[in-house]
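Entry:
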Amino acid sequence: MNSITKILKAETINSPRVTFEFMRALWHLRSLLGTFLVVFFVLCVAMFHFGAPVESATHARASFGGTIYFCGVTALTIGYGDIVATTGIGRALAVVLGLYGVLATGVTTAVAVFAVQRAAGRIPSNSPEKTPD
């Protein structure tokens, strides 16, 4: 089989198998993901106390729930702008949240790609750290 037909060849991958492998990979990373969750909550508390987040429309101090919403939107790098940090510490925390969100998104994407590769049989199930050449 020549290289062009190898490239154009579409493989059929079992969707439940991909889901299983994704959940399996997440299970192996549970301590890392738990640490991500704790760090996110600590950043939310720090933002609430030191960042002085305010709602843009009313200029009223945001509630703790509004602060968690702001931190989530910032970590996902969406940034609606309806709640903003008003202090220098808050703006620095917003930058840290943005970098944190990029890291968390990258880890999630890597796990998803790993799951698809393993479900397709390109990575042997018995040794997850070895990759084929």
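The first strand starts at residue 54 and ends at 55.
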